[in-house]
Write a sequence for this structure.
């Protein structure tokens, strides 16, 4: 029996209520199929590699023929490559390197051509975090959300968590709205801001954990790391049952401190703000398992060709669900490598290293404000007049912001950005802006959006 099955047997009465009634009820209200898809994924995760391969071939062929018929960008691309319908109907996932990579620049310049022609149904704009490249927008529909939510439930089950258990989540905005607030209350989620994280904020979080007897934490790796440092520094004794990180890199020293502070192993998850769940750690807390029934992850070189297992390369992802805007060989801007060998958990899902790259720095002020990279990307993603940005800090009292202006830029925009940053700071941080023509990439082909030499404390 798997650890996931054991965890399921230990569900509380309210967790069983959420599984059997609340989630299916949500499906009826919102037109999703999360409950049924989650049951499918629970079974599919234990398939043999041959069964997984056959499933993926069927899904990729359906996706490609759909794109050839309904998406102008891919109609054009397949025509240029000489790929007829019969070629797509016999396509193999191993042949994906024949196809062009979808870049963030394509999303900016070919947005209309990437839409599904004649699409009917509700559409939601999904914005990338902007932490690894250009900030972009994609489109998702109900089928995309079903796959994301069901895959999340599967990943969380690997860490022994199911909806209905009291948990804390760090996120972008406390303005949850009526619907999300209702969801938080029903599923016992205490939602706190991942931004700022002053000592006063951290003490309130600790008090909340104690008061609500929270035993699970979710959120950005860097924000949970800051919370864990505060817990350890003050010698609080907080035992967790499960911790899930996402959004930025879970560095080895992040993991070590978090696990020590909360006496609990961390399950790292890898997803994209564009609407994909790609991989996560299982009960073994080792390499991440690819979500092979929902996506195809490729690790490629600069020419888009697959690199050998164990070799570092760019992460490109294909989503099987087309939605309102298919994502086929989408360049995530991340770097990783495939891990050889089988996992002790018994799943035959491919294994991926943690997302590599340099540490996501945290801006720290003399008043104890701690601003993670997503604090800044949340601000800049709402400023289309700025193409790219980079925050640099060399002294506690100030930061400099490099930015690349786009057409329509006005200097009054900088005043608004300064006001938003300062409204989340206790300390009157000095902010200097510098317009530049280019912000260079790192050697790893990633762009650092926050570079600070100021110690966290």
């Amino acid at each position: 029996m798997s650890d996931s099955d054991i965890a399921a047997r230990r569900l509380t009465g309210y967790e069983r209520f959420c599984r059997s009634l609340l989630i299916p009820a949500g499906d009826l209200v919102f037109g999703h199929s999360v409950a049924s898809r989650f049951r499918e994924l629970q079974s599919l995760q234990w398939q043999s590699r041959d069964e997984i391969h056959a499933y993926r071939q069927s899904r990729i062929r359906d996706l490609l023929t759909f794109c050839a018929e309904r998406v102008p960008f891919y109609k054009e691309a397949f025509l240029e490559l000489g790929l007829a319908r019969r070629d797509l109907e016999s396509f193999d996932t191993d042949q994906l390197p024949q196809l062009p990579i979808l870049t963030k620049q394509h999303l900016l310049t070919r947005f209309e051509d990437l839409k599904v022609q004649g699409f009917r149904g509700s559409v939601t704009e999904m914005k990338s975090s902007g932490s690894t490249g250009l900030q972009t927008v994609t489109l998702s529909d109900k089928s995309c959300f079903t796959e994301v939510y069901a895959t999340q439930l599967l990943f969380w089950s690997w860490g022994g968590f199911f909806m209905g258990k009291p948990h804390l989540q760090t996120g972008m905005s406390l303005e949850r709205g009526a619907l999300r607030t209702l969801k938080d209350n029903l599923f016992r989620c205490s939602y706190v801001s991942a931004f700022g994280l002053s000592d006063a904020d951290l003490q309130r979080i600790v008090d909340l954990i104690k008061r609500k007897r929270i035993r699970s934490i979710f959120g950005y790796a860097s924000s949970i790391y800051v919370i864990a440092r505060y817990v350890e520094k003050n010698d609080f004794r907080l035992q967790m049952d499960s911790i899930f990180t996402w959004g930025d890199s879970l560095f080895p020293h992040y993991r070590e401190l978090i696990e020590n502070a909360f006496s609990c192993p961390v399950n790292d998850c890898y997803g994209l703000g564009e609407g994909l769940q790609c991989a996560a750690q299982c009960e073994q807390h080792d390499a991440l398992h690819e979500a092979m029934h929902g996506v195809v992850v490729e690790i490629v070189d600069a020419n888009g060709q697959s690199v050998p297992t164990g070799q570092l390369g760019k992460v490109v992802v294909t989503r099987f669900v087309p939605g309102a805007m298919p994502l086929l060989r989408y360049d995530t801007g991340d770097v990783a490598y495939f891990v050889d060998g089988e996992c002790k958990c018994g799943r035959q899902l491919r294994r991926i290293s943690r997302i590599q790259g340099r540490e996501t720095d945290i801006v720290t002020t003399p008043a104890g404000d701690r601003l993670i990279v997503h604090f800044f990307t949340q601000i800049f993603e709402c400023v289309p007049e700025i193409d790219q940005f980079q925050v640099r800090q060399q002294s506690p009292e100030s930061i400099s912001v490099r930015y690349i202006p786009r057409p329509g830029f006005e200097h009054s925009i900088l005043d608004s950005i300064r006001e938003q940053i300062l409204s989340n700071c206790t300390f009157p941080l000095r902010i200097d802006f510098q317009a530049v023509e280019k912000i260079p990439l790192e050697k790893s082909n990633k762009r650092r959006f926050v570079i600070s030499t100021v110690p966290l404390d």
Summary: Residues 310 and 338 are 5 Å apart (CA to CA). Residues 1-9 have pLDDT under 50 and may be disordered.
